[in-house]
Amino acid sequence: MNTDPQVIFGWNPAWLASLIFAAVYALIVTERVNRAILAMLGACLMILCGLLNQEAAIRGVDFNTIGLLLGMMVIVSVTGRSGVFQYVAIWSAKRVQARPSGVLIMLSLVTAVLSALLDNVTTVLLIVPVTLLITEELQVKPYPYLVSEILFSNIGGTATLVGDPPNIMIGSSVGLTFNDFVMNLTPAVLVVVAVTAACIYFIWRKDLVTTEANRARVMKFNEREAITDARLLKQSLSVLALVTAGFILAHALHLQPATIAMFGAALLLLLDNYRHGSEEQSKRVHRALADVEWVTLLFFLGLFMLVHGLESAGVIRAMAERLLVATGGDRTTTVLAVLWGSAILSAFIDNIPFVATMIPLIKNLAPSFGGEQALMPLWWALSLGACLGGNGTLIGASANLVVAGLADRSGHPIRFLPFLKSAFLLMLLSIAISHVYIYLLYL
């Protein structure tokens, strides 16, 4: 029996695949319908219209990305119940004697570090409520702090394999390790962190003033009270250390990141549950799994099928050929075009579907540039552009919208245009730094 899919009505596969993908993308941008619904609907249309059969659609899913995200979400969910993230935020504020400028820098750095090790959406969900509490006690405007945490969550997430979904997708598709990202991207990120911190202080320094009495109130906070479960804290930190070591040694151990993350999640769930009865275990496991961003995972599932439909129809190959024509086949021009193009587009549209489309496109450039190794600067350009570009607008990344939602509910709204005026310029500055870094190091 022939299992090859037959395109409905004999339509041109490339045009039909492009039409379905463009329609889904346009609806995602409008935010009128949940993006997971749209991605799954688009994936099913690829199958129903004969562009893919079900087996081919499943083959297009990168389960390494799905597994890595799922594992880390469970680990963060269980770890968060210990109160460790709130502890770190309060401890950081007290280390700088509760000076507003010092608190701004410390909370920004904590956000960057946690975003590099966990994921930026979870990080801001944990840090923002503590930030609002501290700024209320200091009687300073929370706006500079919240904007800074948006920026540093995306900057920090750029530094590692697990920090931002685009990096997870690139690493999984290309076979890049945790160490590859740290060695090739962290130096650039450290420069961006230093420059952005200096700019933020310069922009908002007049708002970073408080009284000694306000500072004294913050200094009375007891960070130890934030720890709600000391046993769980020790278990969580041990598992996180083990998982991080696994990421670092993954190549030598011949393990994929998803295996390491899922093992860490299962181990932490075991440590958290083995002492309890079956009913209590069921409640705890359900609570951990309820915190998983299933909408994001289903979005990825549908998106991978959509992009595989484009690839099967020959659309990706045609786009790669056009990119080569536009850049004259020059590798340097292509790398810098990917960096700046990714940054500008990711500021206004979701960087996840954009990166999902770009990955197979860049892979198709390998024969023209002399093999897969010659593509490495393109992967780093795509990562830096897509991740840092999310800082350009309030809709550029998921973490931005999460912070905006929390700020709005607390009575300190972050508006689109005021955010754009400062953040877009800072984003362009970070891309300019990345431009110099990539050019000097790889080109």
Structure description:
With 443 residues, this protein is mostly helical. It is built from 23 helices and no strands. It has helices at 13-30, 35-48, 54-59, 63-80, 84-95, 100-117, 120-138, 143-157, 165-174, 178-204, 212-219, 230-248, 250-253, 257-273, 278-290, 294-312, 315-326, 331-348, 351-363, 366-369, 376-389, 398-409, 416-442. Helix 6 (100-117) runs antiparallel to helix 7 and helix 19 packs antiparallel against helix 21 (376-389). It starts with 12 loop residues before the first helix and ends with a helix.
As residue ranges, the low-confidence spans are none
Structural class: mainly alpha
Number of separate strands:
0
- In N-to-C order, the SSE pattern is HHHHHHHHHHHHHHHHHHHHHHH
Shape: globular
Measured between the Cα atoms of the first and last residue, the distance is 51 Å
Beta-strand content estimate = under 5%
Query: Radius of gyration, Cα only, in angstroms?
Result: 23 Å
Report the mean per-residue pLDDT as an integer.
Answer: 88
Number of helices: 23
Topology, please?
Layout: H1 13-30, H2 35-48, H3 54-59, H4 63-80, H5 84-95, H6 100-117, H7 120-138, H8 143-157, H9 165-174, H10 178-204, H11 212-219, H12 230-248, H13 250-253, H14 257-273, H15 278-290, H16 294-312, H17 315-326, H18 331-348, H19 351-363, H20 366-369, H21 376-389, H22 398-409, H23 416-442
Give a concise summary.
This protein has helices at residues 13-30, 35-48, 54-59, 63-80, 84-95, 100-117, 120-138, 143-157, 165-174, 178-204, 212-219, 230-248, 250-253, 257-273, 278-290, 294-312, 315-326, 331-348, 351-363, 366-369, 376-389, 398-409, 416-442. It is mainly alpha-helical and 443 residues long.
